[in-house]
Structure formats: C-alpha cells, structure tokens
C-alpha cells in the first residue's frame, strides 16, 4: 500500500519502507515472546505460521530497499521483488501446512526440536 501513494519522493518512500520493515519486525518479535505458556494446540498453530527465517529475510529486504531509496538509489525498488517472492512462497507453504498438517509421526519427531 505504501507504493500506491502517488507523487512520493524517493526519500519519503524509503523512510516508509524502513518504518514498515522495523514495525513488522518488532511485531514478529513480540509474537515470538508471547508463545511461552500457551497450550500445545496453540503452539502447533504458531509453529506453522512462525517461520522466523523467511520473515526475517522479507523484513531485511524491506529495510534494505528503504535505505537504498532514501539514499537516492532508484534500484532500491528492485529489492522488493525478492521480498515479495519469498513472502508469497512462505504464505503458500503456510497455507499448505495449515490445511494438511504434518502426520503424527513427524509431529512427534519435530516436537523436541527448538525453532
């Protein structure tokens, strides 16, 4: 939605992308802290959607894109393409795991693993 505002200066768009990336990163870290003390079913659902690696990559690409735009590099917008692709693939995989959860055997093996 940030990109849809017409007539923005590159530095303003860069600042907005940096802010969006940092705010989203902060909310993802807050969610990670809140999962302690939840029921096992809730933890399973959070584990499906909490893919820290992909979330961090997407947010870092947003912030890097904003920094590049704020510093006057128009190529900063090209960093949004891999961010969008990673987010899209992650979303599809999350939907897949949500609709077709792992079998009980695999869930038991992964329950001892820390994310």
List keywords for this structure.
single chain, 115 residues, mainly alpha, 5 helices, 71% helix, 0% strand, elongated
Summarize, please.
With 115 residues, the chain is mainly alpha-helical.
Overview of this protein structure:
The protein is mostly helical. It has one domain. Helix 1 runs antiparallel to helix 3 and helix 3 packs antiparallel against helix 4. The protein is elongated and about 50 Å long.
Number of strands: 0
Mean pLDDT across all amino acids: 78
How many individual domains?
1
Q: Helix- and strand-based class? A: mainly alpha
What layout of secondary structure does this protein have?
Blueprint lengths: L9 H25 L5 H10 L2 H19 L9 H20 L4 H8 L4
Helix pairs in contact: 1-3, 3-4
């Amino acid at each position: 939605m940030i990109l849809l505002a017409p007539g923005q200066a590159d530095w303003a768009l860069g600042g907005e992308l940096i802010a969006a990336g940092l705010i989203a990163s902060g909310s993802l870290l807050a969610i990670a802290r809140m999962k302690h003390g939840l029921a096992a079913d809730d933890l399973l659902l959070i584990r499906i959607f909490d893919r820290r690696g992909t979330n961090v990559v997407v947010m870092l690409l947003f912030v890097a894109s904003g920094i590049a735009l704020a510093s006057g590099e128009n190529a900063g917008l090209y960093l949004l393409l891999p961010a969008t692709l990673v987010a899209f693939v992650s979303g599809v995989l999350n939907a897949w795991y949500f609709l077709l959860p792992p079998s009980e055997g695999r869930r038991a093996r992964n329950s001892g693993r820390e994310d």
